[in-house]
Protein: Tyrosine decarboxylase
Amino acid sequence: MDAEQLRENAHKMVDFIADYYKNIESFPVLSQVQPGYLHKLLPGSAPNQPESLQDVLDDVQTKILPGVTHWQSPDYFAYFSSNSSVAGFLGEMLSAGINMVGFSWITSPAATELEMIVLDWLAKLLKLPDDFLSTGQGGGVIQGTASEAALVVLLAARDKVLRTVGKDAIGKLVAYASDQTHSSLQKACQIGGIHPENCRLLKTDKSTEYALSPESLSAAISHDIAVGLIPFFLCGTVGTTSSTAVDPLPALGQITKSNEMWFHVDAAYAGSACICPEYRHYIDGIEEADSFNMNAHKWFLTNFDCSALWVKDRNALIQSLSTNPEFLRNKASEANLVVDYKDWQIPLGRRFRSLKLWMVLRLYGLENLQSYIRNHIALAKHFEELISQDPRFQVVAPRKFSLVCFCLLPPHDKEDCANILNADLLDAVNSTGKLFISHTKCLVLSGKYTLRFAVGAPLTEERHVNEALKVLQDKATSLLQTL
Ligand code: PLP
Structure:
């Protein structure tokens, strides 16, 4: 790496990215290209001779950006957001600049120690119990995604119980969650060797606002024990993907405790809101959990990827995931003086991801982060109020955070075309390129094709919400006229 070459080119790149952000509203939010478009635009093999940065940037502008869906656009309201910020970006840049691989403490002591410190800071902002801090038997670790977090804790829980009941009992282990739980739990069960029929997704309905009912969990556990199975894991969710339902942690925690099960809490999206005192109650009961996860890259101004996972018993992770080949041996690890994060995750190599979270916490501070969350929730409430005033639409699930679930109602004599109507509305608004929303259907939400309007992009202002509503209303008018 030539320092002067870096200085010159990196300045050009920063200019390019700054211009991208300046003009971001001019791009169609959802990429409008067709599959295979890029193969037609780029050569079939790599160049023999070096090309100029300017030529590459020209290609980015004309060939790559049309195939990008602009997650940072203020008109992005799909799935859940994936935040970027100046602080998060600078942290990523610094991490790329230092470019170390911090799998063991010795491979970059600062990377391990900063991660421990920053996750302790964040745990304190969330008012997690002290058991989750690195000063006790637990601690935090940055995983790439919530899916990896679910996998590593499921493996830790599995091995913990198998140490007692014997490895041959793996076919009897049962994991529980609600039918609203993210599919990453099923994937974790698949990878973890849990029998597919033993991943119980318990039904939820309107009566519990789509949250897991403790009664149905207790009943399922009792039934499974009666037939000789071994309940070992519960994944509760705070802020489900489809409708941001919140499972009742205190009651669920009591059940897992009395059945000696591992209790994991997935707050991938909504965990960020719990830094605000008025939303912290959503994780009341977290004292009973064994692990807790939130994605700082979703709604906490930290560039992807940064999924924060805390466990109460770090040894449970280490016993499942540790390997100690000769080529990694070193005095600090042997003396048991340090944390080696390679033993808390699936891969060996790991990036210096704590830098960006540290930058976010330091450059913004708690009060700004709280205002950021509150502003998005206020914007979602604003959208909810506006769309509720239009009798053609219906809000179909209670809004708790910054997601509004709604649908367009068909005329009374055409009720059977409700799903098609809403799918058409989704296509119609997204193909304008003026906004991007997503849908869900897996829900019990009366089995309806449901539209999701998730506020969470850092640049979104009230005018973007108002404009999005107008596009939705205009397209709804056109579609209803064709019926
Ligand atoms: N859990 C919840 C509640 C989610 O909403 C999501 C994604 O939206 C995930 C887990 C999976 O996240 P990741 O992409 O970080 O694995």
